[in-house]
Design brief:
- By secondary structure, the chain is mostly helical.
- It has a single domain, classed as Nucleotidyltransferases  domain 2 (Four Helix Bundle (Hemerythrin (Met), subunit A)).
- Helix content is 77%, strand content 0%.
- Helix 1 crosses helix 2, helix 1 packs parallel to helix 4 and helix 3 crosses helix 4.
- The chain is globular and about 50 Å long.
- The mean pLDDT is 90.
Length: 97
Amino acid sequence: MYYACFYSVCALLASQNIDASTHAGVRRQFGQLLVKTRKIDKILARHFTNMFEKRHKGDYNDFFDFDETTVKELFPISKKFIGKIEEIINEQIKIEK
């Protein structure tokens, strides 16, 4: 789920000709482009940060696994996050036409 959120943000950044070469860079640009300008609400922004932290734990901590309950709680929020990013991209496309 993190990577789905991450790549949706990468697509948005790319559509704005913004290059970020690291996960931290993507998060920083996301904050500047969407959070500070209030194009995305803080709950969804926190979700992206939360997913980043969980991805980091999953990748770098030994014997760390996610339980089914946690995954079921995160999934709908991740879908909402991706949907909002998609909505922002689509709005941008309409403006450019």
